[in-house]
Specification:
Layout: H1 6-10, H2 17-41, H3 47-73, H4 89-130
Helix pairs in contact: 2-3, 3-4
């Protein structure tokens, strides 16, 4: 890095800050609203499942997004299909490490979505079983 200020380097749009913002809007903005709407609209009675799902969703999303923001602030470029193509060894290592940790936290998000889907399916089956045939 030359003598450019860090704020100029971070805001140049060529690192992982850009997808970090897009993922933030969807993971912590749109997704909780959609899940909350359907959870309420379908009248799910499983509060315990909902709280676990919400906790995993928020926690997994926060740390998943933190990996994007950390990598972006440390100048990991965003338009590489393989981290081995990044010429700087340190930046390559940061990119690989944050991607690995991000993948682990993404699993928490998938588990949370699975919990919500299970609650929705369980509610739907209970409604169908009690409906007259």
């Amino acid at each position: 890095m030359d003598d450019q200020p860090i704020c100029r380097l971070v805001s140049n749009g060529r690192n992982l800050f850009v997808p970090a913002h897009f993922h933030t809007y969807y993971l912590l903005g749109l997704l909780p609203m959609l899940i909350g709407y359907y959870y309420h609209a379908l009248g799910s009675a499983s509060e315990k499942c909902g709280m676990w799902g919400l906790s995993l969703l928020i926690g997994g999303s926060f740390y998943f997004l933190a990996m994007f923001f950390i990598a972006g602030s440390l100048q990991v470029p965003r338009r590489y299909s393989d981290y081995n193509a990044i010429p700087l060894k340190t930046v390559r290592a940061i990119g690989q490490d944050t991607a690995t940790l991000g993948a682990i936290f993404a699993v928490l998000i998938l588990v949370a979505v699975g919990l919500f889907l299970a609650a929705f399916i369980r509610k739907d089956r209970a409604a169908n079983a009690s409906a007259p045939h």
